[in-house]
Amino acid sequence: MRKILISILALALFGCAENNPKEQLKNLNGYWEIKSVDSPFGNDRAYKFNERVDYIELQDSIGFRTKVLPRIDGTFVNSDTKETIIARIINDSLRLNYSTPFDKWIETVLKADGNELQVKNNRGMIYTYSKFEKINITD
């Protein structure tokens, strides 16, 4: 019985650490490449190659997301569009409030660590990203 109680306690502690919104917020900045979209409507999609990647920059829970085009020399070409982001912790979840001059929407962060970002929108679609590795032609 004692082993079961210790196992449950350890699982609860480590499970909560992975979904800690404050820790997730720390991991959002950087370049993210879309890997897949899982839809509750059955039209899931996996991405093998992406011409553009998302760049997220947040300071004190406020920032932006934009699309960038990676270049072979390791630099990026920026797009002219930016989505404003305000990150909020609500009910133990990290919510990203996006806005543009044309629309507003919210995504809930399901996972955000140094390697993977997973968000869910209000239609139930789950977007999975991996940290983008810059192209390095010198190796």
Automatic annotation (TrEMBL):
This is Lipocalin-like domain-containing protein.
